[in-house]
Design brief:
mainly alpha
Length: 298
């Protein structure tokens, strides 16, 4: 199909070695350049966030506990970086790959391709419905983590007061109460996300089972209606697409986490800021500085 003539086993292995070498170089470039873009975006965002926070008034700054501000620099920036790398760049490549693959499969067998596309569409709709529930669980969980982090930062700053008034026991009880709430929210989050993870192989291999059943029934009702080579090529390509399909079905989780982080970050960036003092440019200064009768003594 590519116009490459392979007349011997040696020529085949040379061509095969060339292909896997090119594949390795492309995989390296894809991973490295995507990572560089994510790191650059994350750096610019956190520097802008810090610059913006320094410009807030004291009243504006006191609207939130310190823990919520700290969490923006840790977890939120990680989720935003994944949103850029996995949810945007990698997802775009996966969609292009899926369109190309479906076109190749359609050229092999149109009916099987339509069955496959229908199965993928149903899987996407189911995952999207569950992801809406997951978004609420993600937001509640991260809000509670911010509360817990703020509580710890506040108590560490007041450490000497806690020790002076012998408040170790009541402070520990308050921390454990907040920690328990975070635990419950975490269990709910993982229950929903685990359902999504469990459905992914079920939907994927369920679609494959339907395809194989259709191939089997066609061969019974209409012998050799689907040639064995077509069926083998179709199944092998479909299995090769498995990793891409999984990433596409799971990308909504990345979008949900990233959108929550973007929302929280933008709320801080859009808070009113104080006008900064402008540095005056001094020009045309001439003269001399002298020290007269200057000494040190003990």
């Amino acid at each position: 199909a590519l116009g490459v003539s392979l007349d011997s086993t040696t020529a085949f292995f040379q061509f095969f070695l060339l292909l896997i070498t090119a594949k390795g170089l492309m995989a390296f470039a894809d991973h490295f350049l995507t990572g560089v873009l994510g790191e650059r975006f994350s750096r610019e965002l956190r520097e802008r966030l810090f610059r913006t926070q320094l410009s807030h008034s004291v009243t504006t700054h006191n609207l939130k506990p310190a823990g919520k501000y700290l969490l923006r620099y840790s977890g939120d920036l990680v989720f935003i970086q994944r949103f850029i790398t996995q949810g945007t760049i990698q997802f775009t490549g996966d969609v292009i790959f899926m369109i190309t693959s479906l076109a190749v499969l359609y050229s092999i067998n149109a009916t099987l391709t339509l069955i496959l596309a229908g199965g993928i569409l149903i899987a996407i709709l189911i995952i999207l419905l569950l992801s809406r529930i997951l978004r609420t669980a993600t937001l509640n969980r991260r809000n509670q983590r911010s509360v817990l982090l703020g509580f710890v930062a506040n108590r560490m700053n007041a450490f000497f007061t806690v020790k002076s008034f012998n408040r170790e026991a009541p402070e520990e009880l308050q921390y454990n109460k907040r920690s328990g709430k975070l635990y419950d929210l975490g269990i709910r989050y993982y229950r929903i996300s685990s359902v999504i993870q469990g459905l992914l192989p079920l939907l994927f291999f369920g679609t494959l089972a339907i395809v194989l059943y259709f191939i089997s029934s066609e061969r019974v009702t209409k012998p050799y209606g689907i040639h064995r080579s077509e069926a083998l090529d179709f199944v092998l390509l479909f299995l090769y697409m498995q990793a891409v399909i999984r990433r596409i079905l799971k990308v909504n989780v990345v979008w949900q986490a990233g959108s929550v982080s973007f929302y929280k970050l933008l709320r801080i960036l859009n808070l009113p800021a104080e006008a900064k003092a402008q540095e005056r440019a001094l020009t045309g200064i001439y003269g001399r500085i002298t020290f007269d009768h200057f000494l040190f003594q003990f």
